[in-house]
Amino acid sequence: MCFFVLNMSIITLMDIQKTSDRGILEALGSRLRGVRLDANLTREALASQTGLSVDTVRNAETGRNISVETLVRMLRGLGHLDDLASLVEDAVLSPVQLARTQGRIRQRASGRRRNDDDDDDDDGWQW
């Protein structure tokens, strides 16, 4: 099971839906700091190695909003780029899903589909 440590508590995947965006950023920052310390790297060394500023590394580790590029650079510098693999891998469709889509790859979302019953407006106005 995947988890993040936040203020000595564990955020599991089941709890992450209930956690605020700020809480998730703080947990991610805490995890990045822990990985950096485990690698025995100073903030200055990681910043130099990744081309980031020391302030950017500090901001990431304290849970401030960072760019995806900053996250990728830090993970690459810490040797943990594989942690993003599940986000960038192509989704594998099951044979049933492939048959249902007839091999077509979805290009856009259609939004909410309306039923004929949805034509009744609450205010009674119609064309």
Describe this structure in words.
- There is one protein chain.
- Helix content is 46%, strand content 6%.
- With 127 residues, the protein is mostly helical.
- The protein has a domain at 3-82: lambda repressor-like DNA-binding domains (434 Repressor (Amino-terminal Domain)), CATH 1.10.260.40.
- Strands 1-2 form a two-stranded antiparallel ribbon.
Point out poorly predicted stretches.
Answer: 1-9
Looking at the overall shape, the CATH architecture of the domain at 3-82 is: Orthogonal Bundle
Strand count: 2
Q: Using only CA atoms, what is the Rg? A: 22 Å
Q: So what's the overall shape?
A: elongated
Q: What is the beta-strand fraction?
A: 5-15%
Mean pLDDT metric:
81
The name of the CATH topology of the domain at 3-82 is 434 Repressor (Amino-terminal Domain)
| Main sheet characteristics | 2 strands, antiparallel
Distance between the termini: 54 Å
Number of helices: 7
Helix percentage: 40-55%
Summarize the structure.
The chain contains 7 helices and 2 strands.
What layout of secondary structure does this protein have?
Blueprint (H helix, E strand, L loop, with lengths): L2 E4 L2 E4 H4 L4 H18 L4 H8 L3 H8 L6 H10 L7 H4 L6 H7 L26
Antiparallel strand pairs: 1-2
Helix pairs in contact: 3-4, 3-5
